[in-house]
Write a structure and sequence with these properties.
The chain has 160 residues and is mostly helical. Helix content is 82%, strand content 0%.
Length: 160
């Protein structure tokens, strides 16, 4: 275990980074049903099941690791920052706000495209055979993926 003590801003940024990784893992977990059905169609039962299992286990392990690291870094933060995702450092606030904007925009664009394609004259949803379960999981994964990738890339840009 590390004995490194971080400043408030460093602890907030590490917490934000690991929550970004956590969001990416959550996106993979929520889209697993949809991705599994595609893998079965494209790769066959044996290879599709094996690949889905490996990706699922990997995403679950990353989820556990990033959650544990985020919590351990969150212990160096103020309670307000930790429980409510309200950051004291201006740069971390900016990263969080921009990432939320990206996630909202990506989700709205995706749902707008699905709305337009699912018009009565179009058979898009009937052709894709999406269930409501797949659709909701995919919308959640789009939002989580957009948030997580945005957080991780903005933090990495800062360190360059």
């Amino acid at each position: 275990m590390k004995n490194t003590k971080y400043t408030e801003a460093e602890a907030e940024q590490r917490f934000l980074y690991f929550m970004g990784l956590n969001s990416i893992s959550i996106a993979i977990v929520f889209s697993s049903d949809f991705l599994y059905s595609i893998a079965l169609q494209l790769l066959g039962v044996k290879l599709g099941t094996s690949l889905s299992f490996i990706i699922g286990i990997s995403a679950f392990l990353i989820l556990i690791y990033s959650f544990a690291e985020g919590i351990s870094n969150g212990l160096d933060m103020r309670k307000r920052s930790f429980w409510m995702f309200k950051y004291e450092d201006e740069f971390n606030k900016e990263i969080s706000n921009r990432s939320h904007e990206v996630a909202f925009s990506a989700t709205m664009i995706f749902t707008l495209v699905i709305f337009v394609l699912s018009h009565e004259s179009s058979n898009f949803l009937a052709q894709t055979q999406w269930s409501l379960h797949h659709f909701i999981g995919f919308v959640i994964s789009i939002a989580s993926l957009a948030y997580g990738v945005s957080v991780v890339t903005l933090i990495h840009k800062n360190h360059e």
